[in-house]
Amino acid sequence: SQQGEEDPQALSIQEGENATMNCSYKTSINNLQWYRQNSGRGLVHLILIRSNEREKHSGRLRVTLDTSKKSSSLLITASRAADTASYFCATDAGGGGADGLTFGKGTHLIIQP
Amino acid sequence: DAGVIQSPRHEVTEMGQEVTLRCKPISGHNSLFWYRQTMMRGLELLIYFNNNVPIDDSGMPEDRFSAKMPNASFSTLKIQPSEPRDSAVYFCASRRATEAFFGQGTRLTVV
Q1: Contact A45/B at CB under 8 A
Q2: Given its phi and psi angles, is residue A98 left (phi above 0), alpha (psi -120 to 50 degrees) or beta?
Q3: pLDDT tens-place values along chain A, 113 residues long
Q4: I need a labelling partner for A15 at 20 to 30 A (CA). Which of A64, A76, B33, B45 fits?
């Protein structure tokens, strides 16, 4: 069963604009991760935020986590055409890799040049 | 490291045939996951192993599906008999701690 649910399902913006994607989940987590998938390829890890963190940055990526609302957001600033991909959040209940990693259905992001 | 290696990349088979998908995880990773991706259902966790032991196979859709991990460097996902609704992209992923590394997937088409 799906744990995370991304919103929106699809997003189309102009190059240079910021893109925001949201993720809601249902159960307690140890950490939440965001992945990217280019068409026809496997998923690639982008960033991880732990349950005791509220915000994290990595380059043009900014992730927030609100455990009281069981939600997270991924912000991509100054978007580029190469950012076109599907983005997934994944919830991780454990901390040592011994638990399953459950993904949402993803947000398909299209950056218009 | 070559990353997670899956084979074959593409498989077309007739309904009723047995299909075996293969995965070689990254060396040193102790967890391995099998996922199925479709437009309708998204990315579904089928089964995962920790230290070669199946931990949770509740995502395996039916008894037609089975997975094995005979050693730390190899896993298989078998579908017998296959059905058209099994058509999907099947991903294998491995990890040592938190970040999962995915293979390129096997695109399965059952006709």
Answers
A1: yes
A2: alpha
A3: 446 788 899 999 999 999 999 999 998 899 999 999 999 899 999 999 999 999 999 999 999 999 999 999 999 999 999 999 999 999 988 655 556 788 888 999 999 99
A4: A64
